[in-house]
Amino acid sequence: MDSAVSLRNLVKTFGTHRAVDGVSLEIPRGIIFGLIGPNGAGKTTTIRMILDIIRPDSGEVVVLGTPSGEQVKARVGYLPEERGLYRKTKVLEMLEYQGSLRGASPAVARKEASAWLDRLELADWKARKVEDLSKGMQQKVQFIGAVLGKPELLILDEPFSGLDPVNQNTFKDLMLELNRNGASIIFSTHQMDTAEKLCKEIALINMGKIVLNGSLSQIKSRFGKNSVMVEFDGDGAFLQTLPGVARVDDYGRYREVRLQDGADPQALLRAAVERVTVRRFEIMEPTLHNIFIEKVGGHATHA
Amino acid sequence: MHKLMMVIRREYLERVRKRSFWLGTMLLPLLLLGLVLVQVLLTDVESGKVRTIVLVDATGKLSESFQLKLAEEKTKEGKPAYRVEVVAPEGGVEATRKRLEPRVLSGEVFGILTVGDKLESDANFNFYARSVGNIFAQKALQRALKEAVVGVRLEQSHLNVSSEELNKLLAPVELESFEIKEQGNARKRGFDEAYLGTFAFVMILYMALLLYGVAVMRGILEEKSNRIMEVLLGSLTPDQLMTGKILGIGLVGLTQMAIYAVTVGVLRVYAGLAVPQASWIGALESISASKLAYFFVFFILGYFLYTSLFAAVGAVCNSEQEAQNLQTPLIMCLVIPMVLTFFFVTNPDSPAAVVASMIPLFAPMVMFMRITVLTPPFWQIALSIGLLLVTNYIFFRAVGRVFRIGILMYGKRPTVPEILKWARG
Fold it and tell me: What percentage of chain B reaches a pLDDT higher than 90?
């Protein structure tokens, strides 16, 4: 089966800055795929090249089995990170326009948009101007704009940034539903917990390069079960000095300790019990957050 | 194609649905219509009246021939337009006039014409009326008086001319202007009228190119500042977006022009029937079908030229303030031919005019001006249009490249050399 998106050796340079530096990636169909990485890593540039909004300096982009270009755009829904609406336009007209740009006739697009607005509790706002809507409502309208026309592939660039928890939940449920109904979804984020909850596969981009790629479970098992969560009363400074400890992340209420390969968690527990009152001790998979920190480390570029 | 149509549809409907579009569009024709109606009504009322003129003639020699000449002025119904009452200057011309003034103020008498006794002097003839703004009446009086006075002067010169011969000598010389068309049939037309018609057209052309250019630029700036650009680019190519926008707004312009053209047509027919002698009829009549056709040709060519440049300005800027500097040269290119209209219309064949009508940025306005006042050689028109087409093509391609890069750039505005580098691709 062919991929939803297949990138081969993609390079894009802005002036002297190599935004994307030889990215090759296969994104399978039918899954939720996470494109993660720090700000300025090249996520948005990669997405723009997938959608033929900007052209790569070199390399190849194949989307849904065809070389990316104008034709394939009708089959792809896109919610950019920088998103907005015509402020003076009526909500339904705005969506009718967006739907019609995916190839539907204005009447068909209008009907579909209307159904979505009913579903997301915006029925009373159809004839109102966009500028009358609250920010949360505008975000819903933007989301509808991206999913009109039942796209086979949905690309969401930082879909959750700036959303309130209620809308975050709505969007998450919609993404899962669309995915169940057959849409492939690519979304980019720098929020690791969201990616961890939703994605089957991920690619981690840093400084324009793919640092890590594969299914979440594979990646986690590759990093091994050598993380320990310790909750205790007392001074935890000693943890860093114990033999076999690679790094310690202090979360305030608890600490996450990453062990060196071959180190024994039981030895750590014994050492801890001698010094502080341990309330909770758990051997666990490393979080995506920790993998991210470890891979990107201090090298993250900040745009 | 479907997507392009959808962009055109939106850009067109978005603007045409606005109340301000209709207000703006109707204002000019309504103004024109009002102006014509008022004049028609006034002329109707005025031309039916018989006016009484009191002649106070110190020489006592003018009254007969003056009355004779003035009798040639007719009202619409064909009756004499003036009734002349001769009053002897008892106690001097001034005193007589003062005595008569109450009759003028009461409206019974239209005006008092006084003639002193020195027929050779310039300052000898005066006209007193409540309003001296009626040019037609003054011209008629002046003409009649002049012929009468010249007759008397000739008699006094002892040249011994019979009154019959005198009439022949005094037969008026009216200068009528004709315009030579390519078909060879000359048409009567005065310079004022040609100038008036051309100036109105040039103003419309200037306003349209400027307003619609700025509209395209604003539209793009709005899409950038509202962050809607990238949403649209998810479905459209930059070329589709730019082309759709330019064509959509262009159709709005054509709609407006069509409304104007219809108004002018209606006015021509109506005014031609109602008041055939008024001077502004000539201005309307100078708008022939071929001129209208040329107007649309140059409007469309100029429109694409300027809107694509304005689109580039919109694409590389982030706000209207930022765009101010870059759009100034464009506006200057439109203003220069406009302020030089008088020069180009009076010297349509001068080398400066010919050259200006070949420079694409000036050509739409200058070539059109030249066409309205004379018929330039066909090769010049063809060359001008050809150069415009080529330039349009080159600009459209170059601007497309600038647009593609510019619309996704936020932050610092690129410098002119940078923009030119993008344009070369």
Answer: 22
Q: Which CATH class is domain A225-284?
A: alpha beta
User: Of A70, A86, A100, which has the smallest distance from its Cβ to B6's Cβ?
Assistant: A100
Interface of A with B (CB under 8 A): 48, 51-54, 70, 73-74, 76-80, 82-87, 89, 97-98, 100-103, 106, 142, 145-146, 155
Calpha distance B387→B385 (Å, rounded): 5
pLDDT number for residue B192: 56
CB B53 within 8 A of CB B70: yes
| Residue spans of alpha helices (H) in A101-211 | 106-119, 135-147, 165-180, 192-198
The strand order across the sheet containing B111-115 reads: B82-87, B51-57, B111-115, B125-129
CB B100 within 8 A of CB B54: yes
Architecture in CATH for domain A3-220: 3-Layer(aba) Sandwich (3.40)
Q: How far is B253 from chain A (nearest CA, A)?
A: 21
For residue A127, which residues of chain B lie inside 8 Å, CB to CB? none
d(CA A120, CA A170): 9
Q: What does the alpha-carbon distance between residue A292 and residue A193 come to, in Å, rounded to a whole number?
A: 11
Question: What six digits make up the tokens of B174?
Answer: 């009216």
Q: What is the pLDDT of residue B6?
A: 93
Mean of the per-residue pLDDT values of chain A: 86
The crossing angle, in degrees rounded to 10, of helices A91-100 and A106-119 is 130
pLDDT tens sequence across A275-295: 888 889 888 877 888 788 877
Q: What is the pLDDT of residues B22-59, one digit of tens each?
A: 888 888 778 777 776 776 666 656 666 778 888 888 88
From chain A, the residues in CB contact with B227 under 8 A are 80, 82-84
Give Cβ neighbours of residue A241 (< 8 Å, ≥ 6 apart).
none
Which of B230, B401, B410 to probe by mutation at the A interface, max A CB count within 10 Å? B230
Residues of B in contact with A145 (CB under 8 A): 231
Would strands A277-284 and A227-233 be described as parallel, antiparallel, or unpaired? antiparallel
Q: Is the ipTM of this complex over 0.85?
A: no
Task: Mark out the alpha helices in chain A (DSSP H runs).
Answer: 43-50, 70-73, 91-100, 106-119, 135-147, 165-180, 192-198, 216-223, 265-275, 288-296
pLDDT digits (tens, 9 = 90+) for B326-372: 899 999 999 998 888 888 887 888 888 999 999 999 999 999 888 88
Inter-chain residue contact A78 with B234, CB threshold 8 Å: yes
Chain segment A253-269, per-residue pLDDT in tens = 888 888 887 788 888 88
**pLDDT tens column, A231-255:** 888 887 888 888 888 888 888 888 8
Same fold, A3-220 and A225-284: no
Answer whether A142 sits within 8 Å of B222, measured CB to CB.
no
The domain locations on chain A are 3-220, 225-284
Position A227 pLDDT exceeds 50: yes
Could you tell me if A44 and A81 are in contact, meaning their C-beta atoms sit under 8 angstroms apart?
yes
Output the pLDDT for position B177: 54
**Distance between CA atoms of residues B162 and B159, nearest Å:** 9
pTM for this prediction: 0.74
